[in-house]
Amino acid sequence: MTYDLPGVSYMAIYIISLHIVHSNSKSSVGSNHWKLNLEEGKVVQATDDDDSSAGKSGSNPNKDLVLNILKNTVIENGEWRVVDNMLAQSTDIETNQLNKDRNKDSRTSDSTGQTDVHTEKPQLTCGKPVNYTQYDHLRGIANRNEHGQIPEPDVAMIFKKKNGKSSEVDMNELEDRLKKHKKQKPKSAQTFNQIGNFWRIKGNTKLSIECFRKALSISPNHPDVLLNLARVLFNLQYLDDAIFLTRRSLVMQTPQDNSWLQHFTLGEILKAYGHYQEASLHLRHALELNPEFQPALAHLRDMEGAPNPSITQYTLFIILFLIMGVVFGVITSMEASYDEGNEGKPQRHFNRAMAMRSMKLGINPRLIRLRKLNC
Prior knowledge:
Layout: H1 6-32, E1 34-37, E2 42-45, H2 48-57, H3 65-72, E3 73-76, E4 79-82, H4 85-106, E5 107-109, E6 115-117, H5 139-142, H6 171-184, H7 189-202, H8 205-218, H9 223-235, H10 239-252, H11 260-273, H12 276-289, H13 294-305, H14 309-361, H15 365-374
Antiparallel strand pairs: 1-2, 3-4, 5-6
């Protein structure tokens, strides 16, 4: 019958095909489509209602939450965070504007035409630390990474200009000048020595020691570098290392140069040891070479007022020896007198007995004594 009604066959095929397509679309929704559930905070399988709502929204990609997550995910402080498109765009705009403002503020011109630089200056250093010097065996240098901050403002007098009106030293100007010297003479031991003194003023002992080490790697017997390094270690109470470097500096000092500072440093170290006699010799020699140096006079006054530990020990030893001698003499004299007393008593008893016997016999005691003497 179907060949009589071809339209019925076509209608049946259309209905069956439509049913198959509809069933496949439902199964795909239930098994292959997923969505983000904001309330639960996880991805769940989509339902028919979600599919119908998605169909109403059309094919706009902005309505797909999963796609929005992939597009709007940002990383801040090591954490993932999802932001809205508009918020992300505004953040980018603010970031770009902030960078522009920083670049603009980095160099601003005033009314006089001078420029004010707000960018941070690079730190003044001596470059990469050297691997080894012949003084690295000293304990104070080996422990340079453990030292604390010890500012030495008096070191600034080294950089004071002789004809300068002000007694203060501009550290910013000094830093710029040292940077210039370093650029002009990148392998100068004196330049690294001055940079080390700069960090002594700041109190950074580690950087100062590294700069002195670099200077000694270029000139191992430089007397100024050895003395400055000794001063740093002396302030850190490494007395053995400090006196070794100071004596080495004094030996390496040329006769044409004044060595008053070496003698003064030796005086200070020996005073800290308690060797006042030797310390006073070096301090007096420093005053002979530099008569107007008041700290040397102050040290001498302190040592004159303080008792000498060596003299005190000798005095106590002598007093103790005298006391022991007196006690020994007293004990010896007492024993001698005791022995004499014991020996005299029997002689007295014997003489009395002989006298009584002679009186009874009528014999004169003088005759008995004469007989004893004649015998």
